[in-house]
Amino acid sequence: MSDCENFSVPAELEAEADKRITHYPENKRSAVLPLLHLIQHHFGFISEPAVKWVAAKLDLEPIKVLEVVTFYPGFRQEAPGKFHIRVCRTLSCAMGGSYELMDKLCELTGIDRSKTSHSNPIAVSPCGNFSVEFAECLASCGTAPVCMVNDDFHEAITDDKAADLLKQYKNDNQ
Ligand code: FES
């Protein structure tokens, strides 16, 4: 296990990170994206200590890693809720009602999206159980609007189905 300012990385994760770095023998810096994906997949988000850990691994200044994190909206700097909902906002889904779906999900969970931004795309419910984020095309345009809850895919989720969708996960939570 490796520590970086109280940030602990399990040995298996570090071994995987080391393996991925070897894929870029010419320039370790190219491993920034794969390492960030590994970290986010494991921890759910990329914290400041995680940025420093990746930077140390790749002999980079932390600001160089942070630039990558803030450039790609797919990287999260805040912990998501237990159930993270990604709502597609690309054309078919937008026309099918994905913005209305997002509004309804926020209304039902008490989520305030007013502070979201390009570099901070997620918002979390006060209870911490749910979080939301807009996503780009999830490759199921014919069944718009679509969303994902963690790794589960849901099709044709219009805003009138939002309550049932959430209920499914509230029940899972008990
Ligand atoms: S536009 Fe939403 S899945 Fe393609």
Automatic annotation (TrEMBL):
Its cofactor is [2Fe-2S] cluster. Keywords: 2Fe-2S, Iron, Iron-sulfur, Metal-binding. SUPFAM superfamilies: Thioredoxin-like. One of its GO terms (molecular function) is metal ion binding. Binds 1 [2Fe-2S] cluster. It comes from the Bacteria. [2Fe-2S] cluster binds at C88, C93, C137, C141. Belongs to the complex I 24 kDa subunit family. This is NAD(P)H-dependent oxidoreductase subunit E. The lineage of its organism: Bacteria, Pseudomonadati, Verrucomicrobiota, Verrucomicrobiia, Verrucomicrobiales.
